[in-house]
């Protein structure tokens, strides 16, 4: 997996795919997600390309290169929720749990998915 520094050094920042840089900064496996969920990745790319905060994103990626936990980008990035979801899914799947076993567990305990409202 390519590191963020490798990606930023391999191209001019203006030409770098900011979504890929952000995904690498979050520790996401870009190639795996592109293969596993190409539709979602396409949606993320379209949102990123149309985003008005691209200059701020590019600046923040370089400025906070050494701090992968720097959270302020979440305040302006329209892809925050989806990137957080991919991070959670990758972490969950990386823990050795297969999608099939997760579905089985969910089917065995559907009450764990209920949401209480006031």
List the keywords.
7 helices; mainly alpha; disordered C terminus; single chain; 118 residues
Characterization of this structure:
This protein is an all-alpha fold and 118 residues long. It has one domain (4-109). Helices cover 59% and strands 0% of the residues. It has helices at 4-10, 18-25, 30-36, 38-50, 54-63, 80-94, 99-108. Helix 2 packs parallel to helix 5 (54-63) and helix 3 (30-36) crosses helix 4. The longest helix is centred in the last third of the chain and has 15 residues, at 80-94. The protein is globular, with a radius of gyration of 16 Å. The chain starts with a helix and ends in a 10-residue tail after the last helix. The relative contact order is 0.13. The model is unreliable at 113-118 (pLDDT under 50).
